[in-house]
Amino acid sequence: METFYSKFSIRNFKFLLILLFLIPSANLLAQLNGTYSVGGNGSEYASINDAVTDITTQGVSGPVVFQIAAGTYNEQVLIGEILGSSTTNTITYESASGNAEDVLLTYGATGTADNYIFYFNNASNIILRNLSFEATGTGYSRNLQMFGRGDDILVENCKLSSPTTTSTHPNQAVVWFDPSSSSDIRLLNNFITGGSIGISYKADYYSRVPGTVIENNVIENSGYRGVHLQYQSGFIFNNNSVSIQPHYNGTSLWVSDSEGGGEIINNRLIGGGPGYHGVYLGSCQSPVENPGLIANNVIANS
């Protein structure tokens, strides 16, 4: 009995030691919640990618805001699924000053594998606010890219720039969203310039995406298409200014394979060249009780 008691005590002692060792590690991996500083002297994170690594590893227990110090960040940011995120527990990346011109994310891609500055890869509940992006690659110049699933993404008050081109190649789109499924994607009050396409957002053929809102944006100097929307359901495209370069069959707003109503209201759509379309609708339909509306737009062939 004495020997058994001794062995039992030793086992318990070892177990307690293991628990004591693990408790500090668990605290170090506590979920993020609140506001954190990025870049600059004394910040909690030296780079945007450092912040992404932590939030990807640890998850969130409430809304998280990363305030980025003024400066130029030559980084590529890839963000995936975040444990604990929701429409309430959002993750925001924003300029600490509130001025988009103070924070610039820039990158020069050389091929399809690295053709992005900010990549939503199965990411949801993300907000980009008051930031500038500049793609410097010539043949590959996407600013924002989305693949996989993506829900509840907001891009607001940002400046996005790609080199001016007359190319029609999708590798040179400023914003390229091609998710397998998604919902509630919003682009509001942004300035987008250059590229072959300003915004391209098409979802999977089998899932018409709801909740798309593109409002109050200025999109200029697109190579041949300002905005391309495909497989949408009840989208809103209001109060935008879109100007494209003269191009054969150029289009300011292209919508295809979409259904469930939709609004195209109070936009200024400018283009040029033979075959120019201010608005092109292809294979779009709405039920009688929920018709689409196109109203009060200015369309001009310059």
Low-confidence stretches: 16-27
Physical arrangement of strands within the biggest beta sheet? 1-2-5-8-11-14-18-22-25-28
Rg of Cα set: 24 Å
- What kind of assembly state do the chains in view correspond to? single chain
Helix content: 10-25%
Which class of secondary structure composition applies to the elements?
mainly beta
How far apart lie the N and C ends? Answer: 98 Å
Strand content: 35-45%
Instruction: Let me know the largest β-sheet.
Output: 10 strands, parallel
The total strand number stands at 29
The general outline is globular
Mean pLDDT: 92
Query: Please, how many domains?
Result: 2
Q: Counting H and I runs of at least 4 residues, what is the number of helices?
A: 2
Protein name: Right handed beta helix domain-containing protein
Could you outline the blueprint of secondary structure elements for this entry?
Layout: H1 2-28, E1 32-38, H2 48-58, E2 60-68, E3 71-73, E4 77-79, E5 91-95, E6 103-107, E7 118-121, E8 124-129, E9 132-135, E10 144-147, E11 149-156, E12 159-161, E13 175-177, E14 181-188, E15 191-193, E16 197-202, E17 209-210, E18 213-215, E19 218-222, E20 225-230, E21 232-233, E22 236-238, E23 241-244, E24 251-256, E25 263-265, E26 268-271, E27 277-282, E28 293-295, E29 298-301
Parallel strand pairs: 1-2, 2-5, 3-6, 4-7, 5-8, 6-9, 7-10, 8-11, 9-12, 10-13, 11-14, 12-15, 13-16, 14-18, 15-19, 16-20, 17-21, 18-22, 19-23, 20-24, 22-25, 23-26, 24-27, 25-28, 26-29
Organism: Christiangramia sabulilitoris
Protein name: Right handed beta helix domain-containing protein
InterPro entries: Para_beta_helix_rpt-2 (IPR022441), PbH1 (IPR006626), Pectin_lyas_fold (IPR012334), Pectin_lyase_fold/virulence (IPR011050)
